[in-house]
């Protein structure tokens, strides 16, 4: 009978230990679940906010509205002034008011011819680097404005390859 008395405290101690582990496990599960839900909603909010910011940026960048048209000038391939064996390929588009240019195809052909004439007078040193590309873009915009008497708003350089 002495054994039964000794087993009772051991069983109570084991039950208390199991109960404590069960309570700690439930608290850990609840805390982990709550933290997971909180982090999930925080991440969703951050992603939604970033999407809204990107959409706002995209709206701010697009300044052309109304009756404006964008037409591709096409590819222009020609050699440069120096060195003679260097070739350049330029793809561009123009932005203009739809009603201001009566014959856009004719204007685009004239612009292509002007671009070829200009590029044949340019050296590779003149179009090197970011500032060279900026100067090239500004010069081409000036030529386009002169050719079309200001009817074309902007020439957009889409790509340029020098080989």
Features of the shown structure:
2 domains, single chain, 163 residues, 58% helix, elongated, Tetrahydropterin Synthase, Chain A
Structure report:
With 163 residues, the chain is α+β, with helices and mostly antiparallel strands. It has two domains: 1-62; 68-162, Tetrahydropterin Synthase, Chain A (2-Layer Sandwich). 58% of the residues lie in helices and 21% in strands. The chain has three helices and three strands. The protein has helices at residues 2-61, 104-119, 129-147, and strands spanning 68-79, 87-97, 152-162. Strands 1-2-3 form a three-stranded antiparallel sheet, covered by helices on one side. A hairpin with a 7-residue loop joins strand 1 and strand 2. Helix 2 (104-119) crosses helix 3 (129-147).
């Amino acid at each position: 009978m002495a054994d039964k008395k000794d087993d009772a405290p051991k069983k109570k101690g084991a039950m208390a230990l199991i109960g404590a582990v069960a309570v700690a496990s439930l608290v850990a599960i609840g805390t982990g679940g709550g933290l997971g839900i909180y982090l999930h909603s925080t991440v969703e909010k951050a992603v939604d906010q970033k999407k809204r910011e990107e959409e706002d940026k995209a709206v701010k960048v697009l300044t052309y509205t109304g009756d404006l048209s964008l037409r591709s000038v096409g590819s222009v391939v020609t050699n440069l002034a120096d060195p003679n064996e260097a070739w350049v390929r330029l793809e561009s588009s123009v932005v203009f008011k739809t009603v201001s240019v009566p014959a856009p195809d004719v204007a685009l052909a004239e612009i292509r011819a002007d671009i070829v004439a200009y590029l044949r007078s340019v050296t590779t040193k003149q179009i090197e680097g970011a500032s060279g590309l900026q100067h090239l873009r500004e010069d081409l915009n000036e030529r386009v404005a002169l050719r079309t008497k200001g009817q074309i708003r902007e020439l957009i350089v889409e790509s340029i390859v020098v080989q």
